[in-house]
Amino acid sequence: MLLDGKIAIVTGGTRGIGFATVKTFLNQGAKVALFGSRKETVDIALEKLKEENKDYPVIGLYPNLMNPQEVKEAFKKVVDTFGRLDILVNNAGISQRDKIFDYNVEDFEKIMNLNVNAVFICSKEAAHIMKEQGGGVILNTSSMVSIYGQPSGSGYPTSKFAVNGMTKSLARELGKDNIRVNAVAPGVTKTDMVASLPDAVIQPIIAGIPLKRVGEPEDVANAFVFLASDMASYITGVVLSVDGAARS
After folding, report:
1. Catalytic position from the list 56, 103, 148, 156
2. Residue-by-residue DSSP string for 107-153
3. Could you tell me the pTM of the whole model?
4. Does 156 participate in catalysis according to the annotation?
5. Mean pLDDT by 10 residues, the chain (248 residues)
């Protein structure tokens, strides 16, 4: 197993790509702390995992990722429970599709707070722990729109462009501490939102993807597994596209 004995935190781990990443990490031998925004969603995710395998080594927490003290306490609980922290997956995020004329500053700041500031806060806390123990891996969820933009909702691609910059910069800064930092940039992926789209909407999207399908959450999770594993021990500062070669 690629992650045998590794300890991981996955933020935004209650559904979609995050939940698939938690499950894939567990199946690859990791012990996982699943972070969500609310106790209710965390409990539901844990119940689903335990239904599949009651012996999964997984715990659930729900700190405010924009509060450095709550993040520090949650990370300490993970280390106290499992003994160390090898992998952080910064996956929590939100999106919005408003046109610029309808966008307000408060909504823009909300996106930047969770998609960028929380990534910084969690990465900083993880880096402290990982430096002390001799190394680790920080992985960030970016997006194909960080490269190509999108026709509305400029806050989301702006935030993911910032995540790319943070990824590349932290990789250069933390390499001396044996901490690798990479990102995965998913394309259109079959999350709950995409799965609910009518066929008339989804078929033109598929037509523009050379592989002729949208991505599965597991496709992205598998990329995270590879980058977290020792197979990627000389890979850092990379934003890996997982988009079926979609270019729009």
Report:
1. 156
2. HHHHHHIIIIIHHHHHHHHHHHHHHHHT-EEEEEE--THHHH--SS-
3. 0.96
4. yes
5. 98 98 98 98 98 97 98 98 98 92 94 98 98 98 93 94 98 98 96 79 90 96 98 98 88
